[in-house]
């Protein structure tokens, strides 16, 4: 494969500074091209996306009987937000490509075992990130509906929302859920790096449950307990599954270290016994 061409010709994975810079430039160019192509698709998808995120505001305004609109405060605001939304969608659409390019840039500096681990991280990170984005999109109408329900239920009341603030809020909510689904992968990576042990993670399981519950409650506010549990369930399974995997990795690592220590001790004893025989 072309990806491992440098590794084949250079088994130790050593590259000059110039070669590193050329490799980085090539990866950045490919990522930028993928982002631009995704932004083109995002430009075409912006209008139906804006219509979809505007629907909760129309619904709550109709239910409560007050005027609610998304306002654009300047001449260039519409274009700026269209461009911002296009690149936001493009970054999501092209995420498998630029994540792969980051991985491909790192791979030449890793050994075969580490490359297998990185493969696992990549194939776990992309589906989890996509699942988190979907959950964020799924709970978004409930969040908007709940927050806007605090507007007084009066015909003289009005809620005019700045388009930039609203779109930024929606983007942050969706990205937050995507990152929340990625955290378990990060936990496993931190454990494999030897920074944090699985037992240490389990000691704070109460805070994990509390944090996931709070996030789920904010994402599905009101009396919709079913949505809250439906969101909290997968997150808790992911977090506790990641911690359980970390414990298993710790035990495997401890057994391997104990075996290596025993072999080292046996080698030292054999060397000592051989030395005693030679002295006789």
Automatic annotation (TrEMBL):
The question of whether Protein transport is a record keyword is answered with: yes
Region (Disordered) spans which residues? 259-280
What gene is behind this protein?
tatC
Q: Has UniProt tagged this entry with the keyword Hydrolase?
A: no
The GO annotation for biological process reads: intracellular protein transmembrane transport; protein transport by the Tat complex
Kindly report the protein's main subcellular placement as a broad class: membrane
Q: What does this protein do?
A: Part of the twin-arginine translocation (Tat) system that transports large folded proteins containing a characteristic twin-arginine motif in their signal peptide across membranes. Together with TatB, TatC is part of a receptor directly interacting with Tat signal peptides.
Assembly information from the UniProt record:
The Tat system comprises two distinct complexes: a TatABC complex, containing multiple copies of TatA, TatB and TatC subunits, and a separate TatA complex, containing only TatA subunits. Substrates initially bind to the TatABC complex, which probably triggers association of the separate TatA complex to form the active translocon.
In terms of HAMAP family, this protein maps to:
TatC
Q: Which NCBIfam families match?
A: tatC (TIGR00945)
Please state where this protein is localized: Cell membrane; Membrane
Q: Name one GO cellular component term.
A: TAT protein transport complex
Which spans are transmembrane here? 28-46, 86-107, 119-140, 169-193, 205-222, 228-249
Gene Ontology MF terms in the entry: proton motive force dependent protein transmembrane transporter activity
Specify the taxonomic lineage: Bacteria, Bacillati, Actinomycetota, Actinomycetes, Micrococcales
Q: Name one Pfam family in it.
A: TatC
> Which InterPro entries does the UniProt record give?
TatC (IPR002033)
Domain of life where this protein originates: Bacteria
Question: What topology in the membrane does the UniProt record assign?
Answer: Multi-pass membrane protein
Q: Which PANTHER family match?
A: SEC-INDEPENDENT PROTEIN TRANSLOCASE PROTEIN TATC, SEC-INDEPENDENT PROTEIN TRANSLOCASE PROTEIN TATC, CHLOROPLASTIC-RELATED
Keywords in UniProt for this one? Cell membrane, Membrane, Protein transport, Translocation, Transmembrane, Transmembrane helix, Transport
**Protein name as annotated:** Sec-independent protein translocase protein TatC
């Amino acid at each position: 494969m072309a990806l491992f061409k440098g590794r084949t010709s250079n088994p130790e994975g050593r590259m000059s500074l110039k070669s590193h810079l050329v490799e980085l430039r090539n990866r950045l160019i490919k990522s930028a091209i993928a982002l631009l192509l995704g932004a083109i698709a995002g430009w075409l998808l912006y209008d139906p996306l804006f219509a979809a995120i505007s629907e909760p505001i129309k619904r709550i305004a109709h239910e409560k009987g007050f005027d609610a609109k998304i306002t654009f405060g300047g001449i260039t605001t519409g274009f700026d937000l269209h461009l911002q939304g296009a690149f936001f969608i493009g970054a999501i659409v092209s995420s498998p490509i630029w994540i792969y390019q980051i991985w491909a840039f790192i791979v030449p500096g890793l050994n075969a075992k580490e490359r297998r681990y990185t493969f696992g991280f990549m194939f776990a990170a992309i589906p989890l990130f996509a699942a988190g984005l979907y959950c964020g999109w799924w709970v978004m109408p409930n969040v908007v509906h709940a927050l806007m329900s605090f507007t007084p239920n009066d015909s003289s009341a009005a809620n005019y929302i700045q388009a930039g603030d609203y779109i930024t809020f929606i983007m942050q909510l969706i990205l937050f859920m995507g990152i929340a689904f990625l955290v378990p992968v990060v936990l496993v990576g931190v454990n494999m790096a030897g920074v944090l042990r699985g037992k240490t993670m389990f000691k704070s399981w109460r805070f994990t449950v509390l944090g996931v519950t709070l996030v789920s409650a904010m994402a599905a506010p009101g009396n919709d307990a079913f949505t809250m549990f439906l969101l909290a369930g997968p997150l808790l399974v992911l977090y506790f599954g990641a911690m359980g995997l970390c414990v298993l990795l710790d035990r495997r690592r401890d057994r391997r270290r104990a075996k290596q220590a025993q072999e080292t001790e046996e080698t030292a004893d054999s060397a000592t016994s051989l030395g005693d025989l030679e002295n006789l």
